[in-house]
């Protein structure tokens, strides 16, 4: 427990006003309360000016902001310590990054900072702060007998990027709808160009996407936990000039419906004045948005395709929860929608014989893994070269003692083995739950922050 004599006043702001983000900041605030400090967790992100105002109004000692850094033009009161907690890293994140930090600040990553791509030299302390588990999860007890399922996976899967193919008739119909005042001769000329393009240059509108897909598929190895977003970023930028330099539109611009969801475009536009200097994804070109998608999200798609396709060769007793699964025809029969409540999520963890997990960076100590373990659920995840680094599984847990592991080559064999051994799965789940209670509650994270502030 904390050794601070005077309670600190802490302000915590989320990245987005979404349930997951609110759970993270509320959980950390509860952790501070549990060890005798006052923490204010806000439900929505606020501007840098509003942060400074709240620091004065509430006599704040420490500001913790998710995916934000100090604003260079907005000064906080002198006594305030500033902490950036980065849970999402993009290729643009580290541009002008070091200039925003003071030597008394702290930068946390949701795992090893270098592995996640935060490799810029900084004047302040850089550490790892992973998710925690709150008391409600620890105290969870299922209300009724749960119907078991062999396998489940709770998490987002990106939509297939090639769901952008259009037909000649769709383009002609759009033309007549959008251009009702065009002369007949001009309409015929444009239609002729459309038809000419379709027959002589088939699939050219998807050429950029196909190229990026090929580059990622040839460079990234699914289910090995060794994603390097900067390497993939560089590979795509060094593609042949015919792909890289010509104007990009068509298929790439249609990726906007994916990138808006992934990067929160509509939310980032708000409060841009005096907002912290995070990447402005709404201002990125279609090419830059596509680089982000294929460097970060497409590897996740490849991982989850490989994982679920392998598991379906073991058992069809499978449930998939989260956005995107119904967009994949091969997975839609197993898609069960989005779970809106924490107890609903915990029920799935408890009734699943095996809870599947993967992490593109190989840093498995995220909220789903820890919460699943906290209620005694059995986790099966892949090995990673980063397992021993901050945020990696081996920093807290031991394979075959607290969770099960596989490689891409051994996935089916390990899934069969663990599925057949119920007694061992239950024992492993119980042993993992005890480690979570001892080391991974939110008050442990709050105490870690206090210790780091004293460095």
Which percent range describes the beta-strand content?
5-15%
Q: Given this structure, which CATH class of the largest domain is correct?
A: Alpha Beta
Briefly note the CATH topology name of the largest domain. Rossmann fold
Largest sheet: number of strands, sense, barrel closure:
6 strands, parallel
N-C termini distance: 17 Å
CA gyration radius, whole angstroms: 24 Å
| Mean of residue pLDDT values | 84
What's the helix count? 18
Helix content: 40-55%
CATH architectural name of the largest domain: 3-Layer(aba) Sandwich
Q: Which class do the helix and strand fractions yield?
A: alpha/beta
Total domain units: 3
Walkthrough of the structure:
- Helices cover 41% and strands 11% of the residues.
- With 455 residues, it is α/β, with parallel strands linked by helices.
- The protein folds into three domains: 135 residues, Glycogen Phosphorylase B (Rossmann fold, 3-Layer(aba) Sandwich), CATH 3.40.50; 165 residues, Rossmann fold (3-Layer(aba) Sandwich), CATH 3.40.50.2000; 129 residues, no CATH class.
- The strands form two sheets. A six-stranded parallel sheet has the order 2-1-3-4-5-6, sandwiched between helices. Strands 8-7-9-10-11 form a five-stranded parallel sheet, with helices on both faces.
- Helix 7 crosses helix 13 and helix 8 packs across helix 13.
- The protein is globular, with a radius of gyration of 24 Å.
- The two termini are 17 Å apart.
- About 13% of the residues have low confidence.
């Amino acid at each position: 427990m904390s050794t601070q004599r005077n309670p600190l006043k802490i302000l915590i702001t989320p990245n987005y006003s979404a349930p997951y983000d609110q759970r993270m900041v509320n959980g950390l605030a509860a952790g501070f309360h549990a060890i005798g400090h006052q923490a204010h967790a806000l439900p929505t992100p606020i501007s840098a000016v509003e942060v400074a105002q709240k620091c004065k109004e509430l006599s704040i000692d420490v500001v913790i902001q998710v995916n934000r850094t100090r604003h260079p033009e907005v000064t906080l009161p002198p006594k305030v310590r500033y902490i950036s907690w980065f849970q999402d890293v993009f290729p643009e994140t580290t541009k002008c990054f070091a200039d925003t930090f003071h030597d008394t600040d702290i930068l946390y990553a949701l795992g090893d900072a270098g592995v996640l791509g935060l490799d810029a030299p900084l004047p302040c302390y850089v550490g790892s702060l992973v998710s925690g588990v709150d008391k409600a999860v620890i105290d969870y007890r299922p209300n009724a007998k749960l119907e078991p399922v062999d396998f489940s996976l709770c998490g987002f899967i990106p939509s297939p990027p090639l769901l952008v193919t259009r037909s000649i008739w769709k383009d002609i119909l759009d033309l007549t709808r959008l251009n009702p005042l065009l002369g007949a001769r001009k309409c015929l000329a444009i239609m002729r160009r459309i038809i000419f393009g379709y027959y002589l240059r088939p699939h050219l509108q998807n050429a950029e996407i196909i190229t990026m897909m090929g580059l990622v598929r040839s460079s990234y190895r699914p289910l090995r936990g060794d994603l390097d977003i900067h390497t993939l970023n560089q590979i795509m930028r060094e593609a042949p000039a015919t792909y890289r330099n010509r104007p990009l539109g068509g298929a790439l611009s249609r990726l906007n419906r994916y990138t808006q969801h992934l990067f929160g475009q509509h939310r980032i536009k708000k409060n841009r004045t005096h907002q912290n200097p995070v990447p402005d994804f709404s201002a990125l070109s279609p090419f830059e948005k596509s680089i982000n998608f294929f460097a970060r999200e497409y590897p996740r798609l490849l991982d989850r395709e490989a994982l679920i396709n392998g598991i379906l060769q073991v058992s069809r007793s499978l449930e998939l929860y989260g956005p995107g699964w119904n967009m994949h025809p091969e997975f839609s029969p197993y898609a069960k929608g989005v779970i809106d409540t924490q107890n609903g999520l915990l029920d799935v963890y408890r009734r699943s014989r095996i809870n599947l997990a993967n992490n593109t960076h190989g840093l498995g100590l995220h909220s789903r893994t820890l919460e699943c373990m906290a209620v005694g659920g059995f986790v099966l995840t892949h090995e990673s070269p980063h397992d021993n680094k901050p945020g990696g599984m081996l920093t807290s847990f031991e394979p075959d003692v607290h969770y099960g592991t596989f490689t891409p080559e051994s996935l089916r064999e390990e899934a069969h083995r663990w599925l057949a051994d119920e007694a061992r799965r239950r024992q492993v789940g119980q042993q993992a739950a005890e480690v979570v209670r001892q080391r991974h509650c939110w008050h442990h994270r709050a105490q870690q922050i206090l210790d780091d502030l004293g460095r």
